[in-house]
Design goal:
The protein is α/β, with parallel strands linked by helices. Helix content is about 40%, strand content about 20%. It folds into 2 domains: about 1-40; about 60-175, Double Stranded RNA Binding Domain (2-Layer Sandwich), CATH 3.30.160.
Length: about 180
């Protein structure tokens, strides 16, 4: 009798485990009449990160008239290769002629791009100043990384900075 009871208990537990597992199989096709999206498990948000250009505009324009008179721009070396990414993005835009010497430029773009590996975020501050050092425009960006990778966060930061600068100039041109 004991042997039969033990066998029955084991058999029932195995049956319960199989039934519970069939409800959690992600590879199982959707039942008839139900789309695959309805069969997906709920998540805490979208599978992909937020759009790069979304979020508040964190840029500040100090002198809009001076910003509009800038035609040539020198980009100083910035940490984590942010300066290289800004050269790419601003070069594609074509609003500024990028120069290799500060003395040939109407203004200089400088800043910092520091990663906090413990907090897993990237903090970037970008400044544009004229030849005399007077501040013209600035932006502060925080981007998470890991995921995405640090390199992707730097790319996103360059894209956001360019978008904020472009938005500022477009608003100024409308005035």
């Amino acid at each position: 009798m004991k042997w039969g009871t033990q066998f029955l208990v084991v058999w029932m537990l195995a049956g319960v485990a199989v039934v519970a597992q069939t409800g959690q199989n992600p590879d199982q096709p959707a039942p008839p009449g139900q789309t695959p999206q309805q069969n997906e498990r709920p998540t805490l948000g979208p599978r992909h990160g937020p759009d790069v250009a979304t979020g508040p505009d964190t840029s500040t324009t100090i002198d809009i008239h001076l910003l509009m008179r800038i035609h040539t721009l020198f980009i100083e070396n910035i940490d984590n290769s942010l300066s290289d990414k800004l050269v790419e993005v601003l070069g594609k835009w074509g609003r500024f002629r990028l120069v290799t010497k500060a003395k040939d430029a109407d203004a200089t773009l400088r800043g910092s791009c520091l990663e906090s590996r413990r907090l897993k975020h990237l903090h970037s501050e970008i400044f544009i100043s004229d030849r005399s050092g007077k501040s013209v425009w600035q932006d502060t960006i925080y981007r998470p990384f890991n995921p995405p990778t640090l390199d992707q966060a730097v790319d996103d930061t360059a894209t956001v900075v360019a978008a904020h600068l472009q938005r500022t100039i477009m608003e100024a041109e409308r005035r």
